[in-house]
User: What shape does this take?
Amino acid sequence: MKTRKTLLLSLIVILLAIYIVQLTFGNKTNIIELTLEQEPDRIELESKESGKIELFKSSDGYVLGEKKYKTESSTVNSIVSKIKDIKILDTVSSSVNNSNENRYGLDEDNKITVKAFKDDKEIRNLVIGKTSATGSQTYALVDGEKSVKLLSGSLAAIFSSTAEQIRNKQIYSYSSNQLEQVTSTSQDETFHLAKILSADGKRNNIWTLLNTEGQTNTQTSLDNEKVSQWITAISSLRVSEWADDKKDSDFPESSNKITIKANGDSIEIEVAKISDDKYLCKASNEKELFYISSYSAENLMKKLSNLQ
Assistant: This one.
């Protein structure tokens, strides 16, 4: 009796193992992977909400639109990656029509059309719909086929990126150790800080206040901790919002200027207070005007007395 039970249990275990293996490997064989060998030189994203967005391949990545704005590399890399590598998990409908387009998010109000080109030849065409209930799969039409596919990944979140999200917002970014000189000019004062060269020609890490002749100002003492915190705060600058509605002629004459020399670069920043919590800004390395956070503005507009 015991032998019979043992055999039955062993048989159940074996059958269960076979079932699991079939499920695992059987599902894998149903996945269709579509991979583009070519890198797109132009990408179009179009939806009712965001309109049409175009990305063009450049020597160091992709640029945005006809004005060739720099782009956020992480956002664009995700877009390109999901265009090049597609995993089709299943076919959920033989076609999309009036009765099911809303269910799959493929109606005119919700769909996102994604096209990729190489030498003006279309090499990928996706119509992206809703994310499935699992949150990790997406309904879509692929390369002109009529059947609705279930694709791996939350693709709607990636391809719904707006021009504002795709456009690069980093004006500059250095480590605090890379900063060499800072000159701040306001209506009230101008002060100049620099790391002085030592006898061996290397810059030390102590910031020194210089007079108008470029010599050490021995009459004014600085709080080294406050200076260090300030240098860290101004070592990078990021846009909070692009001022597309503003032109250079709109920039107020009354503004604070700060020139930063770091890692061989020299960047001049001008900041003007527009309202209680809004600061308009322009930079020598960026052709468009932009707004920055009050935190960034307050640091760029610090006075010498704040560093003592």
